[in-house]
Amino acid sequence: MSPPRSIVERAAAPQTVPAITAGGLVWRPATIDDVATLTALTNAMAKADGAPYRVTREETEDDLTAPGVDLARDTTIGVDEAGEVRAYGSVMAPPGDESTVRAFLFGGVHPARRGQGIGSEVFAWQTARARQVLAASGKELPGRLAAFAEDSDPAERHDLIKRAGFEPRRFYADLKRPLIGDAPAIPEVELAEPLRLVPFSAELDDATRLAHNDAFRDHWGSEPQTREQWVNGRSEFVPEWSFVVIDESAVEAGAPVVVAYALSSRYEADFPVRGYSFGYTDVLGTRRAYRGRKAALAALGASMRAFADGGMEAAVLDVDTENPSGAQGLYASLGYVKEHGSVMYSIEL
């Protein structure tokens, strides 16, 4: 039997990334100074494509400073004569990957500049750069190039991704649960000792990260998060809407063991787009050894009550439709209904 091929062989990275010439734009790496114009570009694309979100400048800055992004090498933006960014591409490789080394491709073209061949060339640049990143990772693991598309995105975007050799691999559902009017009561959960529901706190943050890494280690596509990854992207995070369940009889790394958690955010820029206010559950999970004890349900219920107390009209979250923990059924039983969807395309190496 022949030895397994190395990540360098499988990634088949080109020596150089292809030049982008379409559209007559000037191309350069992104910098932090581009936050405002990148935010405007992202929101113009979202509006044109019927996406259920808008981004803030703070969210864009979160993306540009995320662990695993080298702005000078992993980003490219196309600037027009007026200095406005009209297209961009980026590649992000999470540093904590341990079982599959991944490179995520994000990007797009301003609606006014579509149909000029820019998108195809940007995606070719991203794919080449992603292969370089994987080849240079030094991780002899299965590899993955991944790109996302909303169900509401134009068919051209889905077709562009598929033409590049990516296949639909995973499907996600964006779920809404009303909190006002004739909405069903939020469930009350009594936890058996030694489990106890407590508000999220900075002191329990890293213990929650450890719980998350355990909870998701049997989920497809999930990888451990480093401390830097875990705290990135929190510009919209609301600690007061977040709760954890601890095991009072256990200690790990000098802190109580967190066994379940619901961490939430307030994406206020999305409220006018969706037509209602909502609290968003960013991550929800239970350590594998504690499943079946309703710990995550207790944390989620506490978050939902906090949303309602904060004047929110609904609770929203996103779920992998093939989640092995049965989350889809749990959410349906609580009154969550699908509003939007998205797909992850990938090339598996």
From TrEMBL:
<protein>
    <submittedName>
        <fullName>GNAT family N-acetyltransferase</fullName>
    </submittedName>
</protein>
<feature type="domain" description="N-acetyltransferase">
    <location>
        <begin position="25"/>
        <end position="196"/>
    </location>
</feature>
<dbReference type="InterPro" id="IPR000182">
    <property type="entry name" value="GNAT_dom"/>
</dbReference>
<feature type="domain" description="N-acetyltransferase">
    <location>
        <begin position="195"/>
        <end position="349"/>
    </location>
</feature>
<dbReference type="InterPro" id="IPR016181">
    <property type="entry name" value="Acyl_CoA_acyltransferase"/>
</dbReference>
